Amino acid sequence: MAIVSVSSKSGASDVLTALGVNVNVTPEQARQALDEIGVCFLFAQQYHSGFRHVAPVRATLKTRTIFNILGPLINPAHPTYHLLGVYAPELVKTYAETAVALKHQHSFVVHGSGLDEVALHGETQVAEIKNGKIEYFTLTPEDFGLKTQSLESLRGGEPQENAQYLTALLQGKGKTEHANAVAANTALLLKLFGYDDLKQNVQNVLAHLASGNAFKTLQKLTTY
């Protein structure tokens, strides 16, 4: 579930649009993509009228609002397995308790040293929600078998520039720092489904990226 970027130059919908993906697909098309290729994009404005009506105001404010908090929690697909990133450490507990209330089967809420994702430039605060219980812990790059890297190494730019970075990454030709960041986040996601070895998960993701097969999936996504 994604919303338009208001606090940075480029959000997920901007990058996917630059790559030729139709982010305004119907729910039926999104379901078809998920069933056929295992991935789809859900644009909040397509599913919740409130997001559509406040989009111009949010763009003008260029700051985070309550909608940045709500977006990931009101996914119309109602997934019960979730990797949720929050932009502030104090939201980890709030999201975790909300995930319990929403009856998530197994989810992670993460805040990575200022980022709403697993960090490789510092520690990542994690809340694991499983069977109605919450466990809090911290992860470091070493837990993934990776070295610490600078936050600057992940800095992007305009949508077209980020689209080029993503294309290279999915073709197996991307920057090492980009590949490692994707691998760390995907490694934790895989743990939701029984793949508990984070270091091995990282290696599997890096191998998949190197194969270029991920780019083929992106190409298929552009056909919907």
TrEMBL record:
<dbReference type="InterPro" id="IPR000312">
    <property type="entry name" value="Glycosyl_Trfase_fam3"/>
</dbReference>
<dbReference type="Pfam" id="PF00591">
    <property type="entry name" value="Glycos_transf_3"/>
</dbReference>
<dbReference type="GO" id="GO:0005829">
    <property type="term" value="C:cytosol"/>
</dbReference>
<keyword id="KW-0328">Glycosyltransferase</keyword>
<keyword id="KW-0456">Lyase</keyword>
<keyword id="KW-0822">Tryptophan biosynthesis</keyword>
<keyword id="KW-0057">Aromatic amino acid biosynthesis</keyword>
<dbReference type="GO" id="GO:0000162">
    <property type="term" value="P:L-tryptophan biosynthetic process"/>
</dbReference>
<protein>
    <submittedName>
        <fullName>Anthranilate phosphoribosyltransferase</fullName>
        <ecNumber>4.1.3.27</ecNumber>
    </submittedName>
</protein>
<dbReference type="GO" id="GO:0004048">
    <property type="term" value="F:anthranilate phosphoribosyltransferase activity"/>
</dbReference>
<keyword id="KW-0028">Amino-acid biosynthesis</keyword>
<dbReference type="GO" id="GO:0004049">
    <property type="term" value="F:anthranilate synthase activity"/>
</dbReference>
<keyword id="KW-0808">Transferase</keyword>
<feature type="domain" description="Glycosyl transferase family 3">
    <location>
        <begin position="5"/>
        <end position="214"/>
    </location>
</feature>
<dbReference type="InterPro" id="IPR035902">
    <property type="entry name" value="Nuc_phospho_transferase"/>
</dbReference>
<dbReference type="InterPro" id="IPR005940">
    <property type="entry name" value="Anthranilate_Pribosyl_Tfrase"/>
</dbReference>
